[in-house]
Design brief:
The chain is an alpha+beta fold. The protein is built from 42 helices and 35 strands. The strands form ten sheets. Strands 14, 15, 16, 17 and 18 form a five-stranded antiparallel sheet that branches. The protein has a four-stranded antiparallel sheet with strand order 5-33-32-31. The longest helix has 54 residues. The protein starts with a strand and ends with a helix. 36% of the residues are buried.
Length: 1240
Amino acid sequence: MALDEENCPVGREIKPQATMVCGGLRKSPGLSSPRPSKLYTTQVLTAAKGDMAKIQECISAAERHLGHAVRNIRQTSHLLQTALQEHQNTLDAMHSLQEYITGAADISSLPDVLQSLSRKSSMEFPPVKIPSSPRDSQLIFPRPPDSSSPSIISFSSTLIEGDDDDIRRLRHLMTRKTQARLEGAYNAIEKAMIWLRILSRMAPFLPPNAVISGFKERAEALTVQGDKLYIGTSTGNLHLYSVNEEPSEDGNIHSELLETKKNLSRRSIEQLAYVSDISSLAVLSDTLVTLYPIPTFTPPAPLTRAKGALSFALYTHVEHEVFPQSPSSDTKASKARTVPVVVTYLAVGCRRKIVVYSWKDGEPEEPLEVSLPHSPRSMVFLNADTICFGYLPVDYALYSLKTRTTIEITLPTHASAVSSTMGMGALSGLGGYIGLGTKPKPCVIRINEGEALIAKENNGVFVGEDSKPTRSAGIDWSAPPEETAFVQPYIFSILPPGTVPSSQIDGLSSLTSNPTFIPSSVLEIRSSISLLPSQTIPLPFTTSSPSSPPALVNYSARLLTPSASAKSPLYVVSTPTDRATATAEGSSIWCIRMKSWGEQVDELIEAGSYADALALLNSIDQALLPDKESRQRVVRALHAVSQFRSTQYTAAINAFLELNINPAKVVALYPENVSGRLAEPESEWIHLYGGPAPAKVEKSDSTQSILEEATNHSQKADDEHEVTSPTSVISQRPPSPQGSVRGLIRTSLETIRPTVRRDDDTASVKAKKRDFEFRKSIEELIRYLSEWRPKVAGALEVLNITAARSHEMPLLSEASKEDLFALPNAPLSSLTPEQLVRFAQIVDTALFKCYLLVRPGLLAPLCRVGNWCEVAEVEEVLRAREKFSELIYLYNGKRMHAKALDLLKQLSEKETDVRDKLSPSVNYLQRLGREYLDLIFHYSRWVFEQDPDIAFEIFTSEEVELPRNLVADFLEKLDPAICARYVEFLIQERSEESTDFHNRLAELYLNMTISAKKRGDNDARQAMKDKLLTFIDTTDRYETGRIFALLPQDDLFEAKAILLGRMGRHDSALEIYVYRLQDFLKAEEYCKRVYSPDGETKNVFFTLLRIYLRPTVKADVDLLAPALELVSRHSHQLDEVETLNILPPMVSAQDVRKFLISALRAPRFDSRVVKEVSKARDEQVARKLMYLQAKRVKVTDSRICPQCHKRIGHSVIAVHSPRGEVTHYQCREAFSRKLKELRA
C-alpha cells in the first residue's frame, strides 16, 4: 500500500494497491519480503501512535458534532413548532375578524380580538445571527430533489411561501448549522471507521500455533533454553520438550516430549528461569528457589538464605574490570588492562526482604541480603544496578544495588476506564479452572535498558531509574490486564472476558448501535513505541483468521514468560473455563512467533508508516538485522518524503542534507517550473526514494471504493472552510457503503440544500495559502541547494575542475532522467568527477530556477560568478520574463558569447542614444580574450558602422590584451586611419617600442598622405604630412632606409631630408633644405638638432656654411647672406681657421666681426695641466676603492635578508655597496635592481 500523508489529517490516508481475489488481498510488490501465510497476505498497517490519537480525536469530534446536531435539530423543531402555533393563532384571529366584519359575531368582543392580533403580529424571535463569514455563508443546504423522506426540515420547507423574513432567516440559519455539524460528524466517524478497519488487519505476529495440545496438567511456569521448552506444573512436575521453532510444511510447529521430572518439587512450580552462567535451571516452588544443573538435574542446590521466596528476577551482563599493571611495567607507556567479565544476578524476593545472588564467570559471590518494608511479589531488573519490584498491584519501589537504597514509586492517578468499556461478562472468567480465587499479583516488566512498565489497574506507566515516568503517555487498557509480558518491541497483555469490544477485532461494528464485547479472554499486543494496539487475538486461538468470532466455549489464558533472546516466541497457555471441558481436552500451549524484522519493516514501509518503521529499526540490534543501516537510510529518506508531502519542508530538507540524498531526487519533488524534466508525479515519490512502486488497481475492487471514500472524506474534513457547489459535491462523493456511518446518520437535511456559489473570498484565501506554502517550500529548497553548492564546488576544485570549464563538460540535457536519478546518495568524497559535475549542474540549474521564482534579485550575482547552470533549461524563461541582463551574464559564464552578442545587438535596436546603444556591446567585447578574436572582429564591424570612436574603445581596453598585429591588420582593412590611430595608441599609451609598429605607422602616414594628394584633399594631405614629418623626426624606432625607399621621387623632400639625416648623410639633407626647399631656418635648425661637439657631427655647421658658399647646383637666390648670418650666430660651432679659409675674399672683417671676436677670446689649455688633473682624479678614485674594499659586515643568526625577509643563517651571501647591505647570494640581483630604482 502506498500512503498519502498530505490530505489525511488522521495521519496517512491509504491508497489501495491490491486486488480482491477469493476473499483475500493479493500481495502488492513491496520490498521483497515474502508473506509467511496466505491467510495473512492482506497488506496491513502497523499501529501508529499518531494515527490512533487522530482516530480518537475524530471520534470525539464526531460525538461533539452529533451532540451539536441533535441540539440544533431540537432547537429547530421547537422554533418551527412555535412558529406554526403563532401562525395558527394569527389565522384564528383573522377568521374571527372576518366574522365581525360579516356580522356573524358579537361586536363587543372586537377590541380583545384586535389586541390579540397585534400581539401575534409583533411576535419576537430569538436573536438570529446573519452569516457574515465565508464559512457561515457556505454552509447552506440545497433544495431536496425528492421530498419523500419525512423530517422536520422537509416539513418546514412547506412553510416557505407566506413566511415572513424573520422566519426565513431563522430557518436558513438553523438548517445550515445543523447540516454543517452533521457533515463533520459523519466525515469524522467514517474516517475513523476506515482506519479502525485497516488497523484491525495489522499483524506483526503470525497466527498462534499450537505447540502442545491436550496437556492434562495445570501449567504454572515456563522457560526456554535453546530449543528446549521447560514446563512447570501445579503438581510439582517438570516437563522437558524439544521444540522446532521453524514451521514444517503444513505450517505447524512440532514438539517432542524428551523427559518428565516427576515430583521435582512437592508443591506447584511457580517460576522457572535458565541461568546460563552456571548452566542451571532456577525453580521457585514451595517458597524456595532451587538451582538444578542441566541436564542431570542433580545435585540440586537450594538457596537456603532466600527462604520464604515469592518471586525472583534474573539479569546477565558483561562488565569490564580493570586490573593494575605489574610494578616492572612502564606506567607512562602502558594503560590499565581491562578484562571482560560475565556477571549474573539472581534477585530473590522473600518476605520483607530481598536476597541477591551473583556469579562472575561462573564463580559465586557473597549473597547480598537487604530488608524491605514489604514483601516483593513481582520484580524485574531495569539494569545492572536497579531492581524494580511490586509489593501490591498498586505499590511499587526501586532498589539500587550500589547505594543500597530503596525509592518508592509514586504512580500518577488515572481515571479508571473499566466502567466505560467493561461489558457484562467482564467478571465471567474469574471462576474458571485456572486462577480460581487467586490473589492478583503486581505486574512489572522490563521494556528497555533503564525502563520498566508498571500496570496499575487498567493503566500502564513507564518508569525509569529515578522512579519518575519516562514517557508523558502511558497505556490505557480496557480493563486491568491479568498478565503481561514483553517481546521487543511489543507488549503482550491478557485482558479478561467481556472487556474488549468486538469492533476492536473486526472494525466493522456500527458506532451507532450498542457495542458487543468478546465473551472470552483476549490477547492484546501493543507496540512499545507507539503504545497503540498492533494486534488483538481472542481466545480460543485458531489457525483461521483472527477476526473470526470466538467459539461458544470460553477459554482463559495465562501469558507466560518468553525466552531471554531478543526475538524469541512467546508461549501462551489456554484452558477452557468449563471444568468438564478442561478435564476432557486439557490445556494447549501456543507459540506466537513474530514476523521477521525485515518483513515488519517492509510492511510498515508499504503502509507508509515511516516514523514507526524508523522507530522499530532503532530498537533492533544490528546482529538481528544485518542490513539495518541501509534500511535506516531508506526509511529516513521515505519519512522525509512523507514530511515533505505534509508541508513539513524544514524537517524534510534537513533529513535530505543529513542523508546526502542525490539532489536530482530532491528537485524531482517540486513542480516542473522548478525541476524541469526531473519532475515526478507525487505517486512516484516513494518509489523514487527506494520505496515500493505504486500498483495499478482495478476500478471494481471493493477495497478501492472504501479507500477512495476515506480519501474524499479526509480531503473534505481537512478543509472545513471549503464548500463547493452542490453539483460538485454530489459528483465527488461516492455512494455510502452498506451499513456505513454515513448511511446510518444521513437525514433528509442532505437532500434539501439550496444551490450556492463558491465564495470568491474563500478561494482567494486558499490561493494565498497555497502560494505561501509553495514559497516556503522553494525557500527550503534554496537552503538545501545553497548548502550543497559550496561543498560540490570544493570537491571539484580538489580535482582541478572549476566552473570556468563548465562549457567543456557534457551538458546536463545529454544525460537521461534515469541516469540522473541513479546517481548515488553518498558523501561527495566518494563520488567520481563525472558524478560531481552532474551534481553541480543539477544544483545550480535548480537554484537558478528558484531564484527566478522567489528571489529574482539574486539571479545576476549567481550568473556573474562561475556556475554550472544548464542554459537550455532557463534561457527561454529568462527571455519570457525579460531578464536580459541575467541571460547575458549566463551566456558569458558558459562561453556562449555569440548568443550574448546577438542578444545585445537585438536590444540595441530599442535604444535611441548612440552611447546607450553601443556601450553594452563594446563592454562585452572588451572582456573577451584572444581566443575569441574572430568573434570580436565579426561583432565589432557593426559597431564601427554606427560610431567608429565608440567602437575604437573595444581595442583600447586594459582588461584583455589582444594580439596587436592581428588587430592592426583587421583595422587597416577596415580603415587605415583607424589603424594609424590604434598604432599611435600603442606607441604613446602602451609604450610599444617594436620596429614593426613604428614602420607600420610611418607607412600608414605616408600612404594616407599620398592617397590624400591623389584625392586632391589638401587639408588631409597636409595633416598626414605633418604627422609623418613629426613622427620620423621625433623617433628613431623605424627602419630609415625602408621608409626612405618608399618616398616618392618628386614629393616629400623635407621627409627625405630628415631620413637622410637619420642615415648620417647630413650634407645631402642640408642640400635639400638649401637647394630644394630653400628654407635656411630649417637647415639651421637641423644643424642645431644634430650638432655634437665631440661627435661625428661637430662640423655640421661648417658643412652648411660650405653648401652656402660653394654650391654644387645653380641657386636662384643669393646664399652669401644666410652664410654670413650662420657665421655670426654660430661662431662657437665653427672652426676658426677653416671658416676663414672658406670665406670669399670679398667679405670684409666688419661682416664677420662677431665671429672674429669670439675666435680670439676662446681659451687655450696647456696639455700638461690636463694631464695633471687626470692623474689627480685617478688617485682619488684609487683611494676611494681602497676605502670601500676595507669595509666588513657581520652576519649573525638573527640577521634577515632585506630582499626575501628570511634568516640568512649559513647561506652564501652577497654584500652590496656602498652601505654594505647583506643578502642571500641568489637574492643579489633582485636587490641590486631594487637599489638602483630607489637611487634613481
